[in-house]
Amino acid sequence: MSKEARRLFTLTVATALIFATGELDAAKKPKKKKVSVEEEETTTDTKPKASPTPSAAEIDVYSFVGDLPLAAQGATVIDAFTGETIYAKNAQQPFFPASTTKILTALLVIEAGDLDKVVVATDQEPKVGDSSLELRPGDQFTRRELLYGLMLKSANDVAHALARDNAGSIEAFAEKMTQRAKELGATDSHFMNPHGLHNPQHYTTPHDLALIARAALQQPLFRSIVGTQRHPWTNQWDTFELRNHNRLLGVFPGCTGVKTGYTNPAQQVLVSSALWGTREVISVVMHTDKPGIWEDSKLLLRYGFAHLPAPILKN
Questions:
Q1: Which end of the chain, N or C, is less surrounded by CB atoms within 10 Å?
Q2: Which residues are catalytic?
Q3: pLDDT digits (tens, 9 = 90+) for 165-177
């Protein structure tokens, strides 16, 4: 047999083996049973396929029906001018407020007036811990200056100094906080300190927190402070810049405030507000996560504006 004949013979045998192997493999596989269209529809898995949760920007807030897809365990949005609730999720359930507590602290200090009075720090302030502006005994700041440190830096030592200056002790100030909250209609709240560091007896609800924020926003100084993104701070060693922790400022159209909060038991908390034209809404998210703190709030604010009741026209 010639060389060329041997090559052709080898190629033919190899091809035959390939086809044979394929037929054997096909024989091993069970043949798919042919079913009618009716049988196919009844045997198909009827479980709905999971779809990704739409982002805040993807939801049509004007026509949305049902519960909003929030990461927050508790939330609400209210009309800032009337206090009317527009949306609520577990809004009467108590949660830990963390540093959003400082909204009420600031309100009490502003309502007390005499904001240019000098507050002298004591040896108690450095003991508070966590977020601080490192107040030292003998440091002197006006109440007005301390309010910027309270709301922008969220300084716990500043909260302590303001509360002690206002009521003489933290315990007395906490009693004033709870009483003032009740006067505002926030009847499901109880406060133990001016800063929001964890205490099992220190709690509020999304609804109550919205009412407290609404009252605070009626104070021009409070509104100015929580709408400030950067503010200079000077101590005995240096001058530096305080930066507002509220990322919605300058990002969400018309955002006017208000305050972030976080502790491990409270998780992420945010009270936010926005003004569009002559209408303003306030949203609260409690026990949420990141990015839920921002996405939840943007969704609530947009939903709030979309569902604001028509203004009452006066004759």
A1: C
A2: 99, 102, 154
A3: 999 999 999 999 9
